[in-house]
């Protein structure tokens, strides 16, 4: 892992907080996936020839796993429900970029079965299973712990050096892996740091189910706030806050951050106590496919902004 990502002051709708800039970690392993997949880059994994994952064909995980497999000399098999005919195929996007790196993106060949079910019940029972390394969707597995703990140590060291007490670290969550392992680290180190997250896929119950798959110790779970969220639905208020941040000189990705920023704003507007740090988890490659969708639906909002 390269040098710690910077922490910058962040003026946010009249509130003063900080932002941890994991988006500035070097490509192709910047942001959230650079943390989760750090051990996959560093450990030996003798005998592995094939890396197996699943998710959306436009996900950041696909591109990051493809880059990782390319660097390690492995073949990536990435399973999906379907590939839309209209999918963006340019190499600057996640799907096209992954294909350029040699990834094989496979629509599940069996009917009425999810990618996860296919991998776990069929693919990993084939003759070459011992040469396969399986990474669940979004890196939701114990392999993510080391890299996220490194992130936690960076935040704790920064807070100690700056004398920042009662720190709240906020981030939006899909599988909740980063939030969980961050909270675990701060509990283990007895830090005066609390992790707060919001669901971007489903609701809080879904997030707690994801936490439970990784740890049975509910005492280390992050605090979950915010309502249920319809993932990938185009919302005017989410685009508006994204554009507001871009006018301020900060670009965020368009699937998770807008939801997270709106929830954080509501917390701060309600006079949430303590110091706050927002974790920028990168993922900007996905904007090349999301922005055209937003432009088509909310063209008027872009009239005063140059994209």
Automatic annotation (TrEMBL):
GO MF assignments: D-cysteine desulfhydrase activity
Keywords: Pyridoxal phosphate
Keyword Cell cycle attributed: no
One matching Pfam family: PALP
Modified residues (N6-(pyridoxal phosphate)lysine): 33
Keyword Protein transport listed: no
Active-site annotation: 59 (nucleophile)
Domain Tryptophan synthase beta chain-like PALP: 13-267
Entry cofactors: pyridoxal 5'-phosphate
Domain of life: Bacteria
Chain segments annotated as transmembrane: none
Matches recorded under Gene3D superfamilies: 3.40.50.1100
Similarity annotation: Belongs to the ACC deaminase/D-cysteine desulfhydrase family.
Family matches, as PANTHER family: 1-AMINOCYCLOPROPANE-1-CARBOXYLATE DEAMINASE-RELATED
Protein name: Tryptophan synthase beta chain-like PALP domain-containing protein
